[in-house]
Structure formats: C-alpha cells, structure tokens
C-alpha cells in the first residue's frame, strides 16, 4: 500500500512540475493554484509513505517518477527533444526505480 501511495505522490510531482510551465513564473492564478495544491499533495503523500519505507528509497523513487513523467510529458506537450540517447537515459531512471522497489523493504 505504501508503494502505491508513493507512486501517486510521484504522479502529483509530475503534475506540479508540468504545472510550473503553465504558471509563467507564478503570474497566472489558476495554474499557480493548481501547481501549489499538487505540490502540497505530493509532499504530503511522500511524507506518509516515508513513514514506512526507507527515506532514501522513497525520495529516490518519488524523484525518479517525477523526472521520468515530466520528461515524457515535456516531449509530448512542449516538443522537447526525443533523441534516442535521451530516451535511453530516461529508461535507465526507470530501471533504477524498479531496482529500488525490488530490493527495498518496509521499515515498520
């Protein structure tokens, strides 16, 4: 269950990271409110999951989900680079996330 919560926290991290682009430096109200709400939810869920998972693992997985999701959405929404080498390194982040999941235990 804590891994699912951590995954959802990572999805909210992707949401706020993408939301940052739409805030235009927090000068647009609705995107700014959306982004701040997603930040609060994401960090709150991370904190909850970290009560039962190793903090280093939880943080790395949370950050990895955010990085991968944001990179993929950046390619789709903002026409960012789709170079094969970039996709390869994004894939390596996914491998790292899976490895941390497979070789980490709950702490409580």
Description:
The protein is mostly helical. 80% of the residues lie in helices and 0% in strands. It is built from four helices and no strands. The protein has helices spanning 2-23, 29-50, 55-77, 84-102. It is flat. The two termini are 13 Å apart.
Measured distance between first and last alpha carbons: 13 Å
Instruction: Write down the overall mean pLDDT.
Output: 95
Structural class: mainly alpha
Report helical residue fraction: over 70%
> How is the main sheet built?
none
Question: β content, as a range?
Answer: under 5%
Low-confidence stretches: none
Radius of gyration: 15 Å
Number of helices: 4
Order of helices and strands: HHHH
Overall body shape: flat
Number of strands: 0
Question: What are the key terms here?
Answer:
80% helix, 4 helices, mainly alpha, single chain, 108 residues
Summarize the structure.
80% of the residues lie in helices and 0% in strands. It has 108 residues and is mainly α.
Q: Helices and strands in order, then pairings?
A:
Blueprint: H1 2-23, H2 29-50, H3 55-77, H4 84-102
